[in-house]
Amino acid sequence: MVGGEYYVNLGSQIFIFAVFAASINLLLGYGGLPTLGHAAYLGVAAYLAALCALKLGWGHLAAAPAALVGTTLMAAAFGLIALRATGLGFLMLTLALSQVLWGTALRWVAMTDGDNGLRGLTRPFGMDDAKSFYYFTLAVTVFSLWMMARFVTSSFGAALAGTRDQARRMSALGHNVWMVRWITFIYAGFWGGVSGLLFVYYHKYIHPVSLSLANSAEGLLAVIAGGSGTLAGPLVGAAIVMLLKNYVSAYVERWNMLLGFVFVVIVVFMPDGVVPGVKRLWRRYISRA
Amino acid sequence: MAALHIQSLKKAFGGLPAINDVSLKVEEGERRLIIGPNGAGKTTLFNLVTGDLNSDSGRIFLFDTEITRRATHRRVHLGLARTYQIITLFSKDTLEHNIALSLLGLSKERWNTFGRNHSPEDAKAVLAMVGLEHLGQRPVSEVAYGEKRRLEIAMALAQKPRVLLLDEPLAGLSREERGAVKQLISKIPRETTVVMIEHDMDTALDMAETITVLHYGRVIVEGTRQQVVADPKTREVYLGH
Q1: Closest CA in chain B for residue A176
Q2: Is A169–B72 a contact, with Cβ atoms under 8 angstroms apart?
Q3: Is residue B115 less than 8 Å (CB to CB) from chain A?
Q4: What ranges in A154-207 are assigned the alpha helix state H?
Q5: Dist. CA A63–CA A44, nearest whole Å
Q6: Which of A83, B38, B44, B180 is the most exposed place for a label (fewest CB within 10 A)?
Q7: CB contact, 8 Å: B98 with chain A?
Q8: Nearest Cα to Cα of residue A215 among A22, A11, A40
Q9: Residue ranges covered by each domain of chain A
Q10: pLDDT along chain A (289 residues), means of 10
Q11: CATH number of the domain at A5-288, please?
């Protein structure tokens, strides 16, 4: 392990955010469904795990599956509503649904302690040192990204990409477009929930801001910057966002402005994102050499 | 039993009737040609049969199953396939992948979220049927227009449909390409009932047994080739007097 605890923790944060971004990528990159409410799944899984521990006194082995089941069921219900539309309508519906949750977390003080957030949480398996938690996060991230990669490269994934490119034609070929999208929505919600568990374990704290539009937008930004519809894109995008957030916020107060600037530069020079952009540059370099 | 049976079907767009009380009975194995000038409602009729549009009233049967209100993909699983007038292929993907998506549409494999268990051989065999096997690995965007038309038909044939709807399969093709597509259509086995739309009367007459002339959303003439050609109403529609 190179570097001090600071870098180890930074690595953990990048991995957690990469799982979150990858779950957004399932919808945006492979399903052509731009979501602006994916923080809902991260936040709800984190809150559920925290509430199971604090209010019910459950251990991690019970709280984690309960949080994931709850989050997945919520994704199934939200999918029924959001998938009444595609494109901009879908975007607005996902945003509206997540805003309801954000408002609830902020206002339902008896349950969530509102703006104070929920404190006094623990990590599973007593992984309180940075290094062991890093390896735990790494393992979960590798598994999650692998599962999502299997999903998009499967037969179902081929159909999903088909519904993104030619939805009407897919129905005419016998594919149930709505069902394909709904299953993907639920799957993305589940992995968003996994990232939420890692998130709450890492911080041992959860605040309504995790459910906010800003968090959803950051995830979306990471996917677009890294390259939507690519397997490595969310990981690269998550690294960019997290590095900026951690490094730059130490020097520049308005780090969001810099993130915005970097994002604009990426979009101007590599409109498909960093991963496809670098691939293209690399091919050009190879053919010249 | 009729393969496709349409009973007094109606569809209006904003008060303007596009399909106005159309009844149609296509027998099993038949080759039916539907002709009519632009705006006669031919493609609208197809869209109603496939479920891309919902009818205002009337009923549609595919063999003995009523499909009037069924979702498009369910109709496909009952044996209905179609091609489009404006080509809607997966243009960034290879020809083989396009066929694979078609084969996947009727296979349980389409719900496999964990792997990919379909062999490229099946897609290759379908492409061979239309003489495109040498282009299997090429993206659709790189092949000629006539080849896209053949791919379009191959995607429909890959599903071994019981009723096949062809929406202007000869449109925009050169003379040689037309020959190739016509030959392809004539080789479709008799288990498949074929209903074909054509705008231009002369190009397709020789491919059909029964012809229906559609005009302003109504059936105005129906019969054998000779009957339809001889009918003064046909001439009126096409020549305007």
Answers
A1: B73
A2: no
A3: yes
A4: 155-165, 167-172, 177-203
A5: 13
A6: B38
A7: no
A8: A40
A9: 5-288
A10: 79 96 97 96 97 92 96 98 95 97 94 91 88 95 97 96 95 97 98 97 94 94 94 95 84 78 89 91 87
A11: 1.10.3470
